[in-house]
Amino acid sequence: MSNWKTLNANYVYKTAFGNLRKDTCELPDGQIIENYYVNEYVDWVNAIVLTKEKKIVLVKQYRYAAQDFFLEIPAGKPEENEAYENAILREVREETGFISKKQPILLGEFFVNPATQTNKVITFLIKDAYKAFDQELDPTEFIDVHLVDLNDMETMIATGKINQLFTVSAYHLSKKLLTK
User: What residues have CB less than 8 Å from 17, skipping those under 6 apart?
Assistant: First the structure.
């Protein structure tokens, strides 16, 4: 098996949120794809945040593209030169006001959609979290914090009350560690 070759790459647009690039690619058998679009995004971080009382900290927010509200785990993107671990601790504190004295546990790094996107999501587990601050939201963030009993997560996923893939996958990645 051979790599695809990039014959040409041009940006359709560049923004602070992400870039859209249009490539011309040559496949291993010589076929040419004239318009292969790649979304360039920075990596994302997210975390299952578990309180001492065995509650999972979720955020509820409106997601414009889906035109609906979603219950999700706290998430965001690192600021310039910020380590992933520091980024998730900051995001959790800003979005929820929760912190922990324990180090985040790295659950894994996963490509979001390697067919068309360049970024990964880096997933953590934060245990023994407690509320210590008020939210510090960006001007475009409108987030409600919800505490969900650990034992209710499976049912909420099965019934579609939680239907955001990164939240579901992070929960399943953390299940063995949540019950310890």
Answer: 41
The string of pLDDT tens digits covering residues 148-168 is 999 999 999 999 999 999 999
Number of domains the chain is built from: 2
178 pLDDT band, cuts 50/70/90, is: confident
Task: Answer whether residue 180 shows pLDDT above 70.
Answer: no
* pLDDT per position as a tens digit, 78-103: 998 999 999 999 999 999 999 999 99
Give, in order, the Cα–Cα distances in Å from 101 to each of 63, 98, 126.
Answer: 31, 11, 9
**Helices of type H across the chain:** 84-96, 153-158, 165-178
Q: Are residues 22 and 103 in the same domain?
A: no
CA 157 – CA 163 distance, rounded (Å)? 6
Residue 166: closest CA among 110, 106, 103, 90 = 110
Do residues 61 and 26 both lie within one domain? no
The domain of 96 spans 44-178
